[in-house]
Specification:
Blueprint (H helix, E strand, L loop, with lengths): L3 H17 L3 H14 L6 E7 L7 E6 L8 E4 L11 H15 L2 H8 L3 E5 L2 H6 L3 H6 L4 E8 L11 E8 L7 H35 L1 H8 L8 E13 L2 H7 L4 H18 L3 E6 L2 E6 L4 H28 L7 E16 L4 E6 L1 H16 L3 E4 H4 L8 E7 L8 E6 L9
Parallel strand pairs: 10-12
Antiparallel strand pairs: 1-2, 1-6, 2-3, 4-5, 5-6, 7-9, 7-10, 8-9, 10-11, 12-14, 13-14
Helix pairs in contact: 1-2, 1-7, 2-7, 7-8, 10-11
């Protein structure tokens, strides 16, 4: 028997933990420990919640499992958009789909049930293969619950919380135990939903705005026209012969852009940069630091890493008979406005100012001077940068009043065009 006051205390703890914004693993751990202390013989718990993420379909949280297995794991997709050609994704999906369709949860979605209970026996194993693992681990009883949301509470494919509860007690769950779980699991589901929504919001902000811009927006920097004046290194890159490739192989555009964006953006992030915009084949990013010299070092290191990754990508794509390209990059250092610009109902968190325009013009000059990397005089004059650079001459840049001296890496470290 589970006392009424213990059920009330568990619900109260869940409400407070949810309001504190505890993470999913903390909620599940705290819930299971308190439920066991109240007399509910939970030996294993598993919760799943779908999410909005460009790679993962959802997240699962385990309790009571082998410590060699992660307590929290993001899982891949059980279905993919039509036209997906990635062989690795398709192979992973096939395995996930097979497991999913044989699960109690899938059965419940088909029947409309909200809970399903099975004693763990050879007969139930035949019905649900996943119970083989439970029986091997000594479980005797199994309960699956789907906590559904109302239609207006659905976000993307997150329309419910899936949870399963197993017991290794010889008698399994009693009717009182089942009744207690059915009363408190909805509160747990509500707290899990709150945690998932907070995580999803941060993920979507970072995915579409960039890491630093996302942090600023989530901290409350959302008023139109509010912008900080910051010193930054501005990165503007695009792809060589992109227009020709799109004209000759239009069906390759999306996969090509994704492949090259993967390696370039990862190089920027690895060196502390923030990607603000993907503009067709162009990438706008900024580097900031304790001082301008640190930002320039980070940007130049990111450029070197990106070039190396692009070269490796080109080798792979060439082996697969896919079109290849290269990166043109302009780097400049200067003061920019960084904040919200736009209309009353459509804002963009970005950088603007003469330094941004000048960077795009410098990148465009790469084609004319046949160099994959060009940096401005302002960049070259920072710290010891001049010792690693060589001038390629002075050039008139469209929209810039005076001709500008441009530089590239010297012969010891020159980035040759691909």
């Amino acid at each position: 028997m589970v006392a009424e006051d213990e059920i009330g205390a568990l619900n109260a703890w869940l409400a407070k933990a949810g309001l504190r914004g505890e993470a999913e693993a903390t909620l599940v751990n705290g819930f299971c420990e308190r439920a066991v202390a109240a007399g509910v013989p939970i030996s294993r718990a598993l919760l799943l919640v779908d999410t909005l993420h460009p790679i993962y379909e959802g997240r699962l949280v385990r309790w009571g499992y082998d410590l060699s297995e992660p307590a929290v794991r993001d899982y891949g997709r059980t279905h993919l958009p039509e036209g997906t050609a990635d062989r690795h994704l398709l192979a992973e999906q096939s395995e996930l789909v097979a497991r999913w369709r044989a699960s109690p949860f899938f059965r419940m979605l088909q029947t409309g049930e909200s809970w399903l209970r099975r004693r763990v026996t050879t007969e139930s194993e035949a019905e649900f293969p996943v119970l083989q693992d439970y029986r091997a681990a000594g479980m005797t009883d199994y309960l699956a619950i789907i906590s559904r949301f109302a239609p207006e509470g659905v976000i993307g494919e997150m329309e419910c919380i899936y949870s399963s509860w197993a017991s290794a007690s010889a008698d399994g769950f009693t009717d009182a135990h089942l009744a207690a779980l059915k009363r408190v699991v909805p509160t747990l589901a509500l707290a899990i939903k709150a945690a998932a929504l907070a995580r999803m919001t941060a993920t979507l902000m970072e995915t579409y705005l960039g890491r630093d811009a996302a942090r600023r927006v989530l901290s409350g920097r959302i008023m139109r026209g509010v912008a900080d004046r910051i010193d930054a290194v501005i990165w503007f890159s695009d792809l060589r012969s992109f227009t020709r490739i799109t004209d000759t192989a239009p069906e390759q555009i999306i996969s090509l852009l994704n492949d090259y964006a993967d390696v370039i953006v990862s190089a920027i992030h690895a060196k502390g940069g923030d990607v603000l915009k993907l503009i067709g084949d162009g990438i706008l990013a900024i580097f900031t630091g304790a001082d301008r010299a640190q930002a320039c070092e980070s940007a130049l290191a990111a450029a070197t890493t990106a070039r190396s990754k692009v070269a490796a990508l080109n080798e792979r794509r060439a082996r697969e008979g896919l079109p290849v390209t290269d990166m043109y990059l302009g780097l400049h250092a200067g003061e920019v406005f960084y904040g919200n610009i736009g209309s009353t109902d459509r804002l963009d968190f970005t950088v603007l100012g003469p330094a941004v325009n000048e960077t795009s013009r410098i990148a465009a000059m790469c084609r004319s001077v046949e160099q994959p990397l060009l940096v401005s005089e302002a960049f070259a004059n920072v710290g010891c940068m001049r010792s690693r650079l060589v001038s390629v001459g002075r050039y008139a840049l469209r929209g810039v009043a005076q001709p500008q001296e441009l530089f590239t890496l010297d012969s010891a470290g020159r980035l040759e065009p691909g």
